[in-house]
Every structure is written in structure tokens, then in C-alpha cells.
Specification:
The complex is a heterodimer. By secondary structure, chain A is an alpha+beta fold. Chain A is 28% helix and 24% strand. Chain A contains three helices and five strands; from the N terminus they run βαβααβββ. In chain A, strands 2-1-5-3-4 form a five-stranded mixed β-sheet. The termini of chain A are far apart. Helix content of chain B is 34%, strand content 34%. The chains are: A alpha+beta, B alpha+beta. Chains A and B meet through β4 of A and β5, α2, α3 and β9 of B.
């Protein structure tokens, strides 16, 4: 089971901060997971195609080629603005 | 003591006391010849507008991991003794302290450089997000190119 997290603007645009998802067999990377989520509708399409969107896998900075086995914590979030 | 024992990382909603943080760095080790501290405060303006309240959120777990990695990188580049990083979350008002970075070292050059390095990477890598309240409502703060450029010099 994937544990998917959404932060900041993304969380507000999607109206959710977390979900569990059984990873479909045809998904194997972070990019494919993003495409799957974007296909849910206009709101998802728009939010997940926002400029500079970042992805983390198991709390480590990641990229769109990262392989998933379906048990990870995957987080999507906008560019960071701390400090 | 190991490096890890001399590293302190904390994300908290409570305010922090600069003098206590400075003391903790100073008491840590008699080899210290220099302490450099940085404190980031909330401003009452941004992008031309008055800002009355700032709200900060983060990604618990990942934040601490990223900060630990940044400090580890700093330790490989400079000779450091103590490193303390505190970042606040939640609601803040103008003049509130947001972030503290303190570094102690045998030499000032290492302490100055490491403090700046840690701050530059904290701003561009650690998963914190700011939302500000202005007279026109709430808005998420956009990442700045100048912050990304600041990391390129390292």
C-alpha cells in the first residue's frame, strides 16, 4: 500500500492531505503515479502539473524516474519556502 | 564525542531564546574559538504588501532528515564543533523569530561559511512552506530565484 501525502498549496487545491492507495500493476515510477493521479480530473490535472512540483519517496528528496514497489510513503509538494 | 552528539535539530512551535542557544554552543567544547549565529525574523512586508500573520507548515520526519543531511555536508567541508538548528512552525507575527542557526568552530572562517551554507540549503531544500495574511487575504509564498542562486555559490 502506498501512503501518499500532499502539502501546502497542493493540499489545499486537492482538499486532502493523505491517502492510501493500492498501487496498480501498470505503475512502477513516481512519474507514472503522478499521471495516474492527474487522470482523476481537472483539479488533479492542474494541481499536479504546477510549476516546480517536487516529489519525495520515504522522506528523501526524489525525482520522477524513481522506482516504486508499492509500499512507499510518497509526498508531493510545491517548491519549499522556509527560513 | 561524536558529531551527532554535537548536532541539535529541532522543529517547534514555541519561541526560542537566543542567549540560551549561544550558551549551549559555548559550553559544548573548550576547543571553540568562534561562534556564528543567524536568526531569521518575520518581516511585516513582502512583495510590496503589508503582512500581518505568517503561517508555517512542514513535512514532519523529512524536515529533520534533510536538515541532518545539510549539517553532515557542512561538516565534511569545514571543521565544526557544535551545530544547532531550530525552525519554528505555526502562526507568527512581525518581529517573531522564525529560524536559528548556530555554528561553533576552532576558527571563524569555518563558522561563518558553515552558518551561511546551512541557511542557504535550509531555505531551498528543507520542506517548509509559508503562507501569509495580507489585507487582501491569504496567499502562499512563492519560492525565490535568488534563494536558489545563493546555493550555487557552494
Amino acid at each position: 500500500m502506498l501512503n501518499i501525502l500532499y502539502f501546502a498549496r497542493l493540499r489545499e487545491d486537492l482538499g486532502t492531505d493523505q491517502e492510501n492507495l493500492d498501487m496498480p500493476a501498470n505503475i512502477s515510477t513516481t512519474a507514472e503515479l503522478r499521471n495516474l493521479l492527474m487522470a482523476r480530473g481537472e483539479q488533479w490535472q492542474k494541481a499536479l502539473s504546477s510549476e516546480g512540483l517536487l516529489v519525495a519517496v520515504n522522506q528523501g528528496v526524489s525525482d520522477w524516474n524513481t522506482t516504486l514497489d508499492g509500499s512507499e510513503e510518497v509526498a508531493f509538494f510545491p517548491p519549499v519556502t522556509g527560513g | 564525542m561524536s558529531d551527532a552528539a554535537h548536532t541539535f535539530i529541532q522543529v517547534q512551535s514555541a519561541d526560542f531564546n537566543h542567549a540560551e542557544q549561544y550558551s549551549a554552543l559555548r559550553d559544548d567544547c573548550p576547543k571553540i574559538g568562534a561562534i556564528v549565529t543567524f536568526c531569521g525574523l518575520m518581516r511585516d512586508f513582502n512583495d510590496g504588501d503589508d503582512v500581518s500573520v505568517l503561517e508555517l507548515e512542514h513535512y514532519p520526519g523529512m524536515t529533520e532528515r534533510v536538515l541532518a543531511e545539510i549539517i553532515e555536508q557542512a561538516r565534511t567541508r569545514w571543521q565544526l564543533e557544535g551545530v544547532r538548528v531550530i525552525h519554528r512552525i505555526g502562526e507568527m507575527t512581525p518581529s517573531d523569530q522564525i529560524v536559528f542557526v548556530g555554528v561553533s568552530s576552532a576558527h571563524r572562517i569555518d563558522a561563518f561559511a558553515a552558518c551561511e551554507f546551512i541557511m542557504d540549503f535550509l531555505k531551498t531544500r528543507a520542506p517548509f512552506w509559508k503562507k501569509e495574511k495580507t489585507r487582501d487575504g491569504q496567499r502562499w509564498v512563492d519560492a525565490k530565484d535568488s534563494d536558489n542562486k545563493a546555493t550555487e555559490r557552494w
